[in-house]
Design a protein that fits this description.
The protein has two helices and six strands. By secondary structure, it is mostly beta strands. The protein has two domains: 30 residues, no CATH class; 56 residues, no CATH class.
Amino acid sequence: MVKTITTTLAVLVLASSVGRADTLLLAGIQMDQQTASARPKSGVSMTTVESTYGAPSQRHAAVGEPPITRWDYPEFSVYFEHDRVIHAVARRGR
C-alpha cells in the first residue's frame, strides 16, 4: 500500500446529477506523518520537552480533571496530562 501522496494538496471533484461540480480540498494530508519525528513523544515530561524544544510560544492553563495543559510551539502543540505528554500535534494554518 502506498503511504505517501505525491502532492500535498489533493483535489476531488464530485459531479452531481445536474452537471454541477463541488470541490473538496484536502491540504496537508501527509503533514502529520512527515513532522511526527520532530515532535515530543508520549510520556515525556514537561521538563524534558522544555529542555529539548525550548520555551513554548504560549502556555495554556490546565483544564479539567485530570488536568490537561497545552503548550504551543510554532510547528506543533503539545498536550500534557499532569506533567507528561499525552499527544503532540502539527499546527495547521500558520
